[in-house]
Amino acid sequence: xxDDADIEDDEDGDGELVAVGVTGDGQGHDPFAAGDASRPPxxxxxxxxxxxxxxxxxxxxxxxxxAQTDPEAFxxxxxxxxxxxxxxxxxxxxxxxxxxxxxxxxxxFGIWGGMSERERRKQRxxxx
Length: 128
Description:
Blueprint: E1 6-8, E2 18-20, H1 42-45, H2 50-63, H3 83-90, H4 95-104, H5 117-127
């Protein structure tokens, strides 16, 4: 803490001590001040490209045939038929991207890229 700072006693009984005379770097710069023009907006500091990643995902998903179909076909109940979903996937232009997404994100339910969860699990084992 800055040598010039004073510590005030716990006057209100909340258990907190208050430093007086210290702001940010001790030079009068408060890094927490709203609208501080010397620092970039938080969004720039923590930008990890998530918008780009989501944009890529949304691009192929918007072109997927399943986006124009009843989603229940792709998430059949246990023991239900996957035939209709796989038929739709077989003619889909983004089948490869869909399957890659499911494998990369460990999707555990539904038909992705023309494969059931069991088929994707087998493919993962073969790849290892």
